[in-house]
């Protein structure tokens, strides 16, 4: 949805953010409902400079002192220019959890969907985030590679998770809001033939294959283990495994 004209990326002025936070504080006080969590919307806030993110987190602390957790989406490539020290400074100011949309750990699938990432870039980002003390939540999309690349999509995704175990792992099912043709074009150009979406039973097979490949997963730093969830509305089978 971020490719639509009305969703062009822009940085919201700090004065406007401060005004929003003051309003949230006033409403919380009026209703006796203190704000505990804040999500940095709308898209990937981690694409902003570290200094600006620090300013935003400081504004949150000043306006909403009851907040215990700030979270955000995070593309792996938006961590590349940030050092562990940069990320740790954000963690110290209240940033706690980053939702990393890896989608797949297979480089061929990632190329076909023009993700702009590789398994290695995702592994590097996850390790850096964890070294900074941040919790990571990874999202994998079942069905992303279609029937032709299903097996390697599962293998690559499992390898990604094994190389950089996150604190949370979520699986969703791929959808085609802009039409199947747009998604399929990358696979056809790469010589994988017509893109064939997976059936519900095949999607469940991917989920089972991923979980089987992750047996014996070593917990991430500072964690008791990776929590798995498939409770998104797109999933055919809701699961929660710790």
TrEMBL record:
Keywords: Iron, Iron-sulfur, Metal-binding, S-adenosyl-L-methionine
Domain Elp3/MiaA/NifB-like radical SAM core: 1-206
UniProt xrefs under Pfam families: Radical_SAM (PF04055)
UniProt cross-references to CDD domains, sorted A to Z: Radical_SAM
Record GO terms (molecular function): catalytic activity; iron-sulfur cluster binding; metal ion binding
Taxonomic superkingdom: Eukaryota
Reported cofactor(s): [4Fe-4S] cluster
Signal peptide: none
Keyword Metal-binding: yes
Keyword Zinc-finger among record annotations: no
Protein name (database record): Radical sam domain protein
Source organism of this protein record: Chrysochromulina tobinii
